[in-house]
Amino acid sequence: MLADITFMASDKLEGRTFGSKGESKAADYISGRFKKLGLKPMGEKGTWFQSLTVKTPNPHNVEFAKEGEEDSKTDKNVIGLLDHGAPYTVVIGAHYDHLGYGEFGSLYSGPPAIHNGADDNASGVAMMMELAQRLSNEKEFNYLFIAFTGEENGLWGSNYFCKNPTYDMSKVTAMINFDMVGRLHENKLAINGVGTSPAWPELIERSNVFDFTITSSESGIGPSDHTSFYLIDLPAIHFFTGAHEDYHKPSDDVHLINAEGMGMITDMVSKLIKMMDEHKKLEFTKTKDPDPSSTPTMEVTLGVLPDYLYDGVGMRIDGVREGKPAALAGMQKGDVIIKLAGKDIKDIYVYMEALGTLHKGDKSTVVVLREGKEMELQVQF
Ligand SMILES: [Zn+2]
Predict the structure, then answer these.
(1) Which stretch, 35-39, 348-352, 353-357, has highest mean pLDDT?
(2) Ligand 1 midpoint to CA 279 (Å)
(3) Dist CA 68 CA 53 (whole Å)
(4) In angstroms, what is the span from residue 180 Cα to ligand 1's centroid?
(5) pTM of the complete model
């Protein structure tokens, strides 16, 4: 896995942003690995690739277009199948794009610099390929491996695949997504989307052989590609080792990867898959979501990095982006937001809901806990 991450997160690939040469190099590398692993190409027309073209790239309202259209950009998903002639198929996915030189989405404020994205998300792609190897003798299921493009822009690759699948989706029993799995720390693991099937909690508990402290969230709607699969009514979960100082910065490099931790998570996932019933499709359930339509169309931002692994009351801030409303109001890393826009903030989902009610130009009082003390701060959006 480290060898794969080392290649994908090297400067040669220039941060793998959607439509770039670097991302194309990464796609060639992944398809080469898929071929060596004995997978079957499952993209368009017998190739490894599924191209998608996006018109006037806009993260909030993606409009797919024809290749070559004016103001459009094209890139591709990489898709391979491990076919065991089994009745059902597990989709295993990870996005391989990242932020390039930090033109958008970066939390770094210096001059343009390559964002290598070792954890985000070379780690997930490497884990996906490791599983392709380990599952070659696990004949209970077929396995469809997808490296998604355009995740950082707004889940473009997975959104496009789910609307235009190159595989018979009626055979798919579940989707497992890896996004940022390279920084296991203090044995803490987050698993999102556990409400998408009644089977997940027990499968997760039984496969947790390393006694990870697991923070799970129910919602099928989250900040990564499993969301696209949930939205077509498939059970979908997301493995995540948490945000960190180097998140969306040029310093997200390979030497900070916890390879041993990745091995442990891979073991857990292999066990979990083995425990899934090969004769029955996993039951799907809709989850209670913060209004999904408000999530991707947020009009304002605080400019903070949420701590997804925080399980106390409130929304803990893991980082503050310079020059943005939170920073200007004096918020700091470690603050826990407990009140925003007149709402008690119980968790990150209520936080997102509250944020969704605000508009550009609004002022709001935010209450944070700092070292156990409540503080009121005035935020201008
Ligand atoms: Zn990511």
Answers:
(1) 35-39
(2) 33
(3) 8
(4) 6
(5) 0.80
